[in-house]
């Protein structure tokens, strides 16, 4: 009875599981499955259903635990896909790959998951092959999704591996396909085309989402956030940093749920800020540290974020943090240049230039493949220290760059600055010899070995440099080599004749016979265009059209020029034509012959001038102290004339300078005019 009752209960539970599965209610389905397992704990179908219900509910860790607990029952042939999927969702990508590869039969589901796993492992070539095989051998409703994934792989190859993407012939009918196509174009550097693709993707996204009545404008903006983020990135690459920054901040305000998108945008804002607005950069760094970011971004994206964190620590004077981050980066990527360059920059900020150069030298010795870029940095540090000669020695040790025109130009300039002309000429000579050997190897079977444009350009620059510094004989040999390569080059011949004229005039005369005559030279010069050009110092006035009377008048007058009327000079008001002007009137008074200097001891008799309390010429007569016989208050006999003469004199304390009232009046007028009220 019990067995029969248990079987009946199990059947009822299975029907419940089936009904809940069709309705998508996996929580209730899981309860029923657990009841079935209580009846029969090793039921394979029940265990499989339990794993599926846990996966549908998002409990991947618990589902994987069930699989690992019942390995004897749930063999790899039965549960391979579910196990690999749980490992994939738990970001155990390597384990997922092993599970897929160990499966005895590769089903379509496993192939789909295999493509996703390869993409996460950044094995793009294998991933591309996997998706091509899926598209070729599958015909179902998921074809559009597979094509989208295929285009995403091509975009990743173009962006991270700099592989020229092939034309897949996909019809860009969805915004996802347009977006991936734009990413591929960004990887190729075709920014304007990429921007147009993103604009098309935005339009398609709005159209597809607006058809659903349940989707709000906020939902559309959230979906468009990744497209707008890529638009801002293009603006940043084009140098439109203000527009890019504005768009980045708009996306952050939307608070998208994609932590990977937020981390990328925050990182890009930090790169725009650089050593400015460091407080804003410190806030943005927190977004790059969000949980799960490492599973959303590629290795190169994560590495770039770490580099920028180290640089930000350097800019914010966090020396220990900068050293810690750069050392960690160097241990992860020993051959990468940036970590050691950041460490050297930090040492330079601490004024430890010698230590920085030593650090770079050690790295160059350990990694010869990257020695060129490191040595360029070392040379820059030496120049900053003022050791130009040592910088030149470092640059000349970079064998693969010795013959490059840019390197030759830099070395010649630096040696010229140090007035080491011999070393500068030696640099030219070594570069020219390199090109000679290169041409000899390239055209070994040819009788005539042509010289490359760069080679000829170096010879010409060497000749000009030698002429400038008085090395005429050496310059002549270079010019002869140039003329030999192109006998029709009149410019080189003229230079050669000019050089020989200083050394061997007879040779110059012989060579001058090779110059073309003035008759054969056709100089097609438009004189009017030349005179009217921007750099012309003299512009001939265009002659106006002459009508009948004016033409006769012009013919009668000939080339007579109109005389300009001179303005009469202004004469002084007291000018007397009968008196001869003083010939020394233009000289300062002190420099004139009749100047005798100022006479000392004489005081002006004018009263009322001078500072307050000053004495005048008549004050001595008013000084009663000079009369010993009379008291101060009694006047002297016969002094009435003196008193009457000085009766109008105001005592010094009440005296005002002449013209003071008028001055005060003017000041009052000025104040009144400029006043704007408001005490």
TrEMBL record:
Entry annotated with the keyword Coiled coil: yes
Which cellular compartments is it found in? Cytoplasm; Endoplasmic reticulum
- PROSITE patterns tied to this protein: TPR (PS50005)
Tell me where on the tree of life, at the top rank, the source sits: Eukaryota
Q: Which Pfam family, any one, appears in the UniProt record?
A: SRP_TPR_like
The Swiss-Prot or TrEMBL record describes its family as follows:
Belongs to the SRP72 family.
Q: What is this protein called?
A: Signal recognition particle subunit SRP72
């Amino acid at each position: 009875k019990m067995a029969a009752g248990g079987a009946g209960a199990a059947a009822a539970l299975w029907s419940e599981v089936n009904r809940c599965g069709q309705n998508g209610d996996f929580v209730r389905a899981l309860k029923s499955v657990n009841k079935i397992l209580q009846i029969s704990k090793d039921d394979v179908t029940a265990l499989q259903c339990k794993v599926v219900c846990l996966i549908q509910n998002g409990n991947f860790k618990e589902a994987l635990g069930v699989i690992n607990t019942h390995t004897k029952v749930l063999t790899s042939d039965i549960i391979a896909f579910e196990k690999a999927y749980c490992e994939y969702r738990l970001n155990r990508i390597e384990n997922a790959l092993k599970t897929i590869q160990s499966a005895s039969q590769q089903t379509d589901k496993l192939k789909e998951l295999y493509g996703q796993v390869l993409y996460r492992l950044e094995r793009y070539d294998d991933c591309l092959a996997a998706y091509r095989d899926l598209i070729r051998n599958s015909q179902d409703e998921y074809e559009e999704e597979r094509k989208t994934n295929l285009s995403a792989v091509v975009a990743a190859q173009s962006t991270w591996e700099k592989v020229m993407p092939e034309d897949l012939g996909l019809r860009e009918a969805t915004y996802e396909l347009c977006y991936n196509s734009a990413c591929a174009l960004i990887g190729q550097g075709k920014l304007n085309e990429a921007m147009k693709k993103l604009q098309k993707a935005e339009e398609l996204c709005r159209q597809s989402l607006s058809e659903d009545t349940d989707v709000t404008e906020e939902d559309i903006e959230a979906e468009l956030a990744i497209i707008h983020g890529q638009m801002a990135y293009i603006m940043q690459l084009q140098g439109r940093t203000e527009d890019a920054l504005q768009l980045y901040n708009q996306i952050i305000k939307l608070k998208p749920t994609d932590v990977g998108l937020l981390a990328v945008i925050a990182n890009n804002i930090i790169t725009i800020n650089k050593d400015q607005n460091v407080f804003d950069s410190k806030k943005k760094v927190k977004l790059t540290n969000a949980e799960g970011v490492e599973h959303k971004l590629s290795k190169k994206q994560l590495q770039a974020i770490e580099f920028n964190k180290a640089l930000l620590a350097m800019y914010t004077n966090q020396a220990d943090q900068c050293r810690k981050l750069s050392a960690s980066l160097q241990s992860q990527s020993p051959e990468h240049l940036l970590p050691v360059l950041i460490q050297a920059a930090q040492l330079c900020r601490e004024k430890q230039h010698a230590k920085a150069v030593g650090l770079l030298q050690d790295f160059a010795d350990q990694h010869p493949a990257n020695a060129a870029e490191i040595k360029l940095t070392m040379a820059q540090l030496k120049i900053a220290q003022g050791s130009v000669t040592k910088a030149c020695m470092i640059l000349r040790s970079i064998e693969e760059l010795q013959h490059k025109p840019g390197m030759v130009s830099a070395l010649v300039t630096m040696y010229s600055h140090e007035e080491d002309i011999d070393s500068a000429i030696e640099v030219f000579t070594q570069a020219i010899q390199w090109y000679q050997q290169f041409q000899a190897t390239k055209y070994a079977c040819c009788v005539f070995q042509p010289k490359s444009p760069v080679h000829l350009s170096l010879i010409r620059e060497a000749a000009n440099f030698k002429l400038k510094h008085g090395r005429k004989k050496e310059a002549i040999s270079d010019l002869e080599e140039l003329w030999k390569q192109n006998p029709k080059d009149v410019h080189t011949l003229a230079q050669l004749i000019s050089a020989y004229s200083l050394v061997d005039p007879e040779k110059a005369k012989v060579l001058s016979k090779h110059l073309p005559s003035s008759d054969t030279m056709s100089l097609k010069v438009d004189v009017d265009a030349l005179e009217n050009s921007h750099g012309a110092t003299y512009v001939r006035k265009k002659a106006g059209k002459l009508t009948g009377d004016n033409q006769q008048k012009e013919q009668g007058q000939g080339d007579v020029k109109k005389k300009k009327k001179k303005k009469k000079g202004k004469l002084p008001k007291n000018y007397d034509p009968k008196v001869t002007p003083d010939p020394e009137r233009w000289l300062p008074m002190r420099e004139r012959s009749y100047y005798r200097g100022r006479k000392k001891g004489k005081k002006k008799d004018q009263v009322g001038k001078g500072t307050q309390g000053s004495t005048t010429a008549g004050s001595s007569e008013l000084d009663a102290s000079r009369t010993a016989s009379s008291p101060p208050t009694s006047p002297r006999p016969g002094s009435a004339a003196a008193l009457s003469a000085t009766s109008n004199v105001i005592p010094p304390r009440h005296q005002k300078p002449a013209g003071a009232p008028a001055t005060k009046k003017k000041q009052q007028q000025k104040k009144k005019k400029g006043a704007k009220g408001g005490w």
